[in-house]
Amino acid sequence: MKDHMELDGYEGRVAFITGGAQGIGRQIAERMRDLGAHVAVGDLHQPDIADCLNMTMDVTNEESVRHAVDEVFNTLGSIDILVLNAGIFIIEPFEETTLASWDKTMSVNLTGSFLVSRSVLPHMRDAHFGRILIIGSSAGITGGSKSIAAYAASKAGVMSLAKSIATAYAEFGITSNALAPALIETDMIKDMADMASRIPVGRLGRPADVADLAAFLCSENAGYITGAVVDINGGFLIH
Questions:
Q1: Is 9 within a domain?
Q2: pTM as predicted
Q3: 161 near 110, Cβ under 8 Å?
Q4: Is residue 86 included in any domain, yes or no?
Q5: What are the residue numbers of the active site?
Q6: 202 lies in which domain range?
């Protein structure tokens, strides 16, 4: 049995993943590396992924973003694939959400995606090729469970951002899509293992499940898919 699916378009390409030190981001970085891409990983905490360019970066800080993007270009020569995965998840009742807390969530999840994509897109436009994938959430579609209003709003924003980029840059050979995962087995939902019984496929999702779908959407095989928000939830939100 093969360790992963065979996909075209990775050999020699450069992929840049934000928020890639652990969880879903790390799985995506490792999958794209194994498919033949040169991979750069940026995270607030120093990543340690073998055979990747590992960088510390703060997606909310313009100077940090510029420095990281410059380092990728100076070291690897281009950015062909951009996966915007950096994000935070804060649980707090709506009326107890302070402006500072709201702004922090928006700054990391939404503004961070804007700053990084704005920095990379001119290079993709000039190259007439690019794959952008933003990791959203089912909460951005449904509003999520109680006490995650800021998170849900920020994820709705990034998924709309992916569509806006798709519209503006399709003529330059750039695709832009988003994923809307739910109940993926990461530290974010470590206290929700009992939810598995409510998922039609009978288990929580795994970061590798998301990495498989991300790898497809960023491959040559998905060149006709853009502006899409793709659910990955084991049937949890069938309606």
A1: no
A2: 0.94
A3: yes
A4: yes
A5: 151
A6: 14-232
CA–CA dist 189, 234 (Å, integer): 15
- Count the neighbouring beta carbons within 10 Å of the beta carbon of residue 202: 10
Q: What is the rounded CA–CA span in Å between residue 138 and residue 122? A: 30
Backbone angles phi, psi at 147, to 5 degrees: 75, 25
Please give the Cα distance from 137 to 232 (Å, whole number).
Answer: 9
* Domain tally, the chain: 1
Q: What integer pLDDT is reported at residue 90 of this predicted model? A: 94
In a domain, 214, yes or no: yes
C-alpha 73 chain-centroid distance? 20
pLDDT of residue 1: 39
CA distance 14 to 71: 12
Kindly give the parts of the chain with pLDDT less than 50.
Answer: 1-2
Say if residues 166 and 226 touch (Cβ distance below 8 Å): yes
pLDDT for the residue 224:
98
| CATH code assigned at 59 | 3.40.50.720
Is residue 237, in this structure, part of any structural domain at all? no
Q: What is the pLDDT of residue 184?
A: 86
pLDDT score at 201: 85
